Amino acid sequence: MRSKPTFFDSLRYRMTVSGRTEDFYRLQYERMFRRHYSRKCDCLKVGDLLLPRLSHAEFPTREEAYYAMEIGDILYPALFGSFRYVDEGPYEWEDVRIEEGDVVFDCGANLGVFSLLAAYRGAEVYAFEPISAARAELRKTLDLNPALKERVHIVPAALSDCEGSAEFTVLDGTLVGSSMVLSQQGRKETARLTTVDAFCEAEGVSTDFIKADIEGAERQMMKGAVETLKRDAPKISICTYHFADDAAVLRGIIERANPAYRISEKWKKMYARV
């Protein structure tokens, strides 16, 4: 039976592979804080986007180390053309890009960094986030950006291959890494499950772009999106680092659903479009 890595085992592995330690990302957050902190709003101003300050701790927390990783992966390449701090990889690469008017599914929205970028690009965003505390921070992110807030619809659900509910393990002291798949210690929270196909049918929507980082449940989510891949052929940007066979399994699901997809892999992500 395949052993399930914990979230922080996965995080530690990614940092080891990249040659970067957790302290590297704590230092990165300190540098980003000095560069982007605005006293006027007590928040971070990254380009035209405002992000909440996570804590007032003197030393950056573990969560802020991860926050720095997200900013470096998502916003620095998109807003500044800088790949200096890329670790997992940006969600836009080559011809897999958010276009004005796209309907974007942000699967695992967390604090809303990617949702905010997609709205800034002119997309309509459905931000799927099953964890209540993360949704509260997501709302703070959107409240800081009122001109973009109306473009983002928060969906209090997780995406999988079936409808129903699932128990998530929420790690203590952090909003990142909550999972219904990975084996880890923490408090339990039950969340609603839906599928991409069922959501599209129920809401009468189609999607142009699917982004996913859902802590090991990516393959289940893609199995629940097969009809959407056949019908709409959305662009796909998805994480592949939680299990050793993620890339092979996800590639197989996508290609069987729609053989017209062109797929590439770079960093710790898979990019696909027709």
Attribute tags:
seven-stranded mixed beta sheet; 10 helices; three-stranded antiparallel beta sheet; 22% strand; alpha/beta; 274 residues; Rossmann fold
Radius of gyration: 17 Å
Number of helices: 10
Looking at the overall shape, the CATH architecture is: 3-Layer(aba) Sandwich
Structural class: alpha/beta
Order of helices and strands: HHEEEHEHEHHEEEEHEHHEHEE
Mean pLDDT: 89
* Unreliable segments of 5+ consecutive residues: none
What gross morphology would you assign?
globular
Number of strands: 13
- CATH fold call: Rossmann fold
Helical residue percent band: 25-40%
CATH superfamily: Vaccinia Virus protein VP39
Give the CA-CA distance, first to last residue: 35 Å
CATH class: Alpha Beta
Number of domains: 1
**Strand residues, percent:** 15-25%
Strand order of the largest sheet: 6-5-4-10-11-13-12
Biggest sheet statistics = 7 strands, mixed
Structural description of this entry:
It is a single chain. The strands form three sheets. This protein has a seven-stranded mixed beta sheet with strand order 6-5-4-10-11-13-12, sandwiched between helices. The protein has one domain: Vaccinia Virus protein VP39 (Rossmann fold), CATH 3.40.50.150. It is built from ten helices and 13 strands. It has helices at residues 7-18, 22-36, 62-80, 113-120, 132-143, 146-149, 196-203, 218-223, 226-231, 246-257; strands spanning 37-38, 43-46, 49-52, 103-107, 124-128, 152-155, 158-159, 164-170, 187-194, 209-212, 235-239, 262-266, 269-273. The N and C termini lie far apart (35 Å). Strand 4, helix 4 and strand 5 form a beta-alpha-beta unit.
